[in-house]
User: What shape does this take?
Amino acid sequence: MSEGLRILTAWWAEPETVWITRYVQTGGYKGLRKALTMTPQEVIEEVKASGLRGRGGAGFPTGVKWSFVPQDTGKPTYLVANFDESEPGTYNNRELVERDPHQFLEGVIIASYAVQCHTAFIYTRGEFLFPGRVLERAIAEAYDEGFLGKDILKSGYQLDVVLHKGAGAYICGEETALLSSLEGYRGQPRLRPPFPAVEGLYASPTAINNVETLCNVPHILVNGARWFAGIGTEKSPGTKIFSVSGKVNVPGNFEAPMGTPARVVIEEMAGGVLDGKHLKAWTPGGSSTPFLTEEHLDVGLDFESIAEAGSLLGTGALMVTDERDCMVRVCQRLLQFYAHESCGKCTPCREGTWWVTRMLTRVEEGFGRREDIPLLGEIGDNILFKAFCALADGAVSPITSTLKYFRDEYEEHVRLGRCPFTEPRAPRLPAVREAPPEPSWPEPAPIPLSEILR
Ligand SMILES: Cc1cc2nc3c(=O)[nH]c(=O)nc-3n(C[C@H](O)[C@H](O)[C@H](O)COP(=O)(O)O)c2cc1C
Ligand code: SF4
Assistant: This one.
C-alpha cells in the first residue's frame, strides 16, 4: 500500500501527540517561535510565497487572503477557524484535531499574529463532542505553557482563543453564515461584498480559514516557503489529506502530494474497490463536486487537473460507488440532504432542491415519466449560479454529473417502471388508481298490488 507523504499526519499514529509536552518534543511550536521573530507582514509574505491555497473548498491563496485584512480601520481584527466540516464525505479536519490538536492551534496562533488579531474564534459543529473536548484541553494546555494569553513566549504579543460550538448545520460552514451564527443570529449567508476580510465578524476585518489550511502554516514557517512550494504541483503546492469513503476496502484519511492520481489514492491507499467490483463513480471533493468516472482515475488530484476533467477538488473527499450502486438513488439521497440543509433564504435553492428531490424520488420509485429526465436538467440549470450562495450550486453537481454519465440509468428506471438495481417486487399499483366499477345489484322483482293491499 502506498504511504503517501506525511507532513500533517506525520504523528497521527502516536496517541501521545495530543499532549503539549509530546508535541513540543517532536518540534511543535517551533513555527510559532520563528513567526514571532518576524513582522506580521513578513509572515504573510512567507505564506504567500509558499503558494498555500485554502483547503476548505475554494482553494483561495491563504497569504493573499490575509493581506486583504486592513489594519487601519480602528476596529479589532479577528481570525476565525472554520471547524464546521460539514461537506458530506469530508472528515479530515476532525481527525487533524483529534490526533494532533496543537498543530492546528499553532496554525491558529501564527495566522492570528499575521493578521494582528488578539481574539481568535474556532467555530465547530455541535456534533463534534469528542474533538471539541480534545481542543478544549489543548487550549488550556497552550495557555498554561505560555503559547496563548498575554505576552506569548515573551514577545509582547497577546492572543485569546474562544471555542464556539454551533448547533450543527451544513450552511454554517459557509463563511458568512458561520459569522452570523457566531454572532448569535440564524446561520444564513450574507451578501458579499463586503467580504469578511474587510467587514466580517462584528463588522470588523476578519480572516476565515479551514482547519487543514491552518495546519499547514507551522510547517511553512519551519521549513520555508520554497520547501512547501516544491511539494505537489506548481499551482497547487503542498499535500492534501484525502478522505476516502464508500465502496473501498480501507476507507480513511490519506495524505499525499497534490497532483497524486486518483487511482493511487483509491486503489493503493484505500485498498481498491470492495469485493473486487468495478468502480462506477467518485467525487473528487465531497458531494457538492460533480461525479467523475473510471476513465478519470489517472487525473491528478489538484485544483487545475480536476477542473480540466470537469469537476472540482473541493475538500478532497473521494466518495466511491461501484457497479452495484444505483446512481439515481445516490443522486436522490444527496438531493434530500441539500433540500434539508437549504437555509431557505432564496427561492431557487429552497424550492428547487425540494422539487428535484420529489422528482428524483418519483423516478427512483418507478413512477417517473420520460420527460422528467430533461426536466431535471432544466431545473438544475435554473438553480445553478442563480441562488444566493454556493450551497445551491453544490446541489446541482450530482444532478448534472449523473445525467451526463448515467443517463441510461435514468432511462432504464422509466422504461422498467422500477429501479433496475433492486429485485423486481410485486407489481406496483398504478400511480393514479382508476375508480372501481359501481357494484351492480339485481333489480328487485316488482311486488304485485294484490300483495300490498292484502
Ligand atoms: C455550503 C458550504 C459549506 C461549507 N462548509 C465548510 C466547512 O465545513 N469548512 C470549511 O472550512 N469551509 C467550508 N466552506 C467554505 C467556506 O465558506 C470558506 O471558503 C472556507 O472556510 C475558507 O477557508 P480556506 O480559505 O482556508 O479554505 C463551505 C462553503 C459552503 C458554500
Ligand atoms: S442558496 Fe440555499 S443555502 Fe444559500 S442562501 Fe440561498 S437558500 Fe440559503
The pocket of iron/sulfur cluster (ligand 2) is lined by residues 171, 189, 342-346, 349-350, 387-389, 391-392 (CB under 6 Å). The mean pLDDT is 94.
